[in-house]
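Saturday, quiet lab. Running sequence design on the structure tokens for the scaffold JK sent over.
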């Protein structure tokens, strides 16, 4: 997260192999603005990644004039129902979870149980741009939007896409050697 790697001068031997939370937050707000969303509610874990992601979303929301509310939860939580109910009470246009732990799976299941996708967009940070994690969530992943990268969408790309050839080659190599699909982490390391 940006909180760990920025400023570079403070940690010259620390680097990130993944997209900055700041970059992802701006892309998410660009998407939400294009959908006419005027307010968001953020549930974030108490981890450095969770708090940094919430801070990045808050900054990006201010830039895009999107109302921002947030609730932090313990990253060891096994039920986020009360957090989600509290955030949903404000009737935001979207609810976003920012975590890298198992609470992401809990979030999807609780949001599905509360049928939040019927009244708002249900979104998640890019940690869940990983087919294996989404498979664990099962049907609770229906109607959710996960920030991510193009590589994890290989199955839905057409050969006319400018990145298709390289991604297909990478996906085939990954499948042949590791019997695994492209994940956000594999794609970023490959880049």
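Result came back. Writing it out in full:
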């Amino acid at each position: 997260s940006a909180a760990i790697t920025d400023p570079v001068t403070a940690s010259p031997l620390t680097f990130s192999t993944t997209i900055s939370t700041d970059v992802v937050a701006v892309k998410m707000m660009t998407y939400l603005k294009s959908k006419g969303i005027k307010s968001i509610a953020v549930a974030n874990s108490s981890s450095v990644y969770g708090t940094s992601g919430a801070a990045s979303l808050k900054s990006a929301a201010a830039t895009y004039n999107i109302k921002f509310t947030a609730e932090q939860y313990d990253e060891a939580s096994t039920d986020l129902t009360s957090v989600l109910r509290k955030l949903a009470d404000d009737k935001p246009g979207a609810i976003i979870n920012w975590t890298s732990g198992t609470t992401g799976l809990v979030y999807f299941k609780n949001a599905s149980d509360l049928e939040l996708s019927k009244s708002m967009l249900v979104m998640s940070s890019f940690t869940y741009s990983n087919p294996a994690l989404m498979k664990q969530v099962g049907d609770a992943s229906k109607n959710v939007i996960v920030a991510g990268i193009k590589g994890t969408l290989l199955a839905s790309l057409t050969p006319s896409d400018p990145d298709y050839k390289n991604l297909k080659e990478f996906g085939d190599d990954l499948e042949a050697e590791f019997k695994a699909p492209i994940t956000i982490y594999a794609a970023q390391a490959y880049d």
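Notes for JK: DSSP finds eight helices and five strands in the chain. The mean pLDDT is 90. Ask whether to fix the surface positions before the next round.
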